[in-house]
Each structure stands twice: as C-alpha cells, then as structure tokens.
Amino acid sequence: MMLVTTNSIPGRDVAEVFGIVRGTTVRARHVGRDISAFLTNLVGGEVEEYTKLLAEAREQALDRMRAEALALGADAVIGLRFTGTEIASGAAEILVYGTAVKLAP
C-alpha cells in the first residue's frame, strides 16, 4: 500500500475515493523510562526512551490506519498527516489520517 503526504501520486490517477481513514494510539510513560529520561535530561542529549516510545506509537497508528484503508479496498492513502496531543499527565495520543483511494491501473 502506498502512503504519501502529497495529495496526488505523480503518474497515477485516482480511480475511486473512499474517504478519510485514521489510526490512533494512546501511550503512557513508564516509570523506568522516566527515571532514565530524567538522568539523560541532567546531562543533556537525546532522550532515547521517549524517542523509541514515540516511534512505536507512530508505527502502531500507521498500522491501524493501513488496516482501515485495506478493509475499504484502498491501495493507497494520500494526504497523510500525523498529529499528537497530551490527553492526560504522562499520556499522549498519536493520530495519523489521510484519504483512502483506489489507484487506476
């Protein structure tokens, strides 16, 4: 399945538009990761524990969106966007969304 942030795919025509598809996940911090992140924050540098947590969350949200698009019969998602928000102290939602389409042969 093609996933693109553009509103079209060069050289390909859209045969059918299925509409908006989305995938979401909510992740919370882990006390063990928080301690390690706190120590990293003291000396500076990348907080690898949170980087990994967010990467996993993005992949899970993408997988859920892809599954929704496939269930509709789509073979591509155009206009892909990510957004995130804190929904509670220590918990964040990652949302990915786009337009599911069927490409012309």
Outline the fold blueprint.
Elements: E1 2-3, E2 14-28, H1 31-43, H2 48-72, E3 76-88, E4 91-103
Structural write-up:
It contains two helices and four strands, in the order ββααββ. With 105 residues, the chain is an alpha+beta fold. It has one domain: 2-Layer Sandwich (Translation Initiation Factor IF3), CATH 3.30.110.70. It has a four-stranded mixed β-sheet with strand order 1-3-4-2. β3 and β4 form a beta hairpin. The chain is elongated and about 55 Å long.
- Helix percentage: 25-40%
Strands of the widest sheet, in order across it, are 1-3-4-2
Structural class given helices, strands, pairing?
alpha+beta
General shape: elongated
- At the fourth level of CATH, the homologous superfamily is Hypothetical protein apc22750. Chain B
Oligomer: single chain
Task: Indicate the CATH topology.
Answer: Translation Initiation Factor IF3
| Proper CATH architecture | 2-Layer Sandwich
CATH level 1 class label? Alpha Beta
SSE series? EEHHEE
Unreliable spans are none
Largest sheet: 4 strands, mixed
Work out the helix count.
Answer: 2
Radius of gyration from the alpha-carbon trace, in angstroms: 17 Å
Distance between the termini: 14 Å
Average pLDDT level: 87
**Approximately what portion of the residues adopt beta-strand conformation?**
35-45%
| Strand segment count | 4
How many domain regions? Answer: 1
Offer a few descriptive terms.
elongated, single chain, alpha+beta, 4 strands
Compact description:
The protein is of the alpha+beta class.
